[in-house]
Prior knowledge:
This protein is α+β, with helices and mostly antiparallel strands and about 170 residues long. The chain has a single domain, classed as Haem-degrading domain (Beta-Lactamase), CATH 3.30.450.150. The chain is built from four helices and four strands, in the order αββααββα. A four-stranded antiparallel sheet has the order 2-1-4-3. Helix 1 crosses helix 4 (about 150-165). The longest helix has 17 residues, at about 40-60. The protein is globular, with a radius of gyration of 16 Å. It starts with about 40 loop residues before the first helix and ends in an 8-residue tail after the last helix. Keywords: Signal.
Amino acid sequence: MVAGLVLALSSAGVSAAQAAPAAPAGGRAGDRFVTHTRVLNSEALLRIGRAAIREAHRRGQRVTVAIVDRSGATRLVLKTAHAGPQTEESAKRKAFTAVSFGQPTSKLAANAVGDGPTIRDIPGTLFLAGGVPVISGGMPIAGIGVGGAPQGSIDEAIARAGLRAVEGALGR
């Protein structure tokens, strides 16, 4: 049972930052200044969220699951009972980082080290394991972030369980 609250669930509204590359030549007349963007619908958001929460319960973890769209806007937040207050921000930032770079946050951590400026300096990012991108049409269209488990690898496993709930139904 989901003991949390759905804080944000939106199936409409696409920002300019979500704009995909323009449709190829030969598109419909009048589409010259229009781009078509892939976004997760509310059914996909809920499937991902429910699957991730089920996995968290199976593992006995108190976490928050967040899903952001390509522009970084929060689309869904779910919390298990007794998830700490820090878990929401952590989950959102992991989701944002995963969609921004199109890679799991666990793979990005190596690029976030050094004495000079690095990708860790980009506002809103968090380079701890627990964020995975949702890929459709070869592009990241969303990020799933989980925060709260004692190890990032557990957060990432929970996020991947959410992703598996929609794999095969995301288009190419």
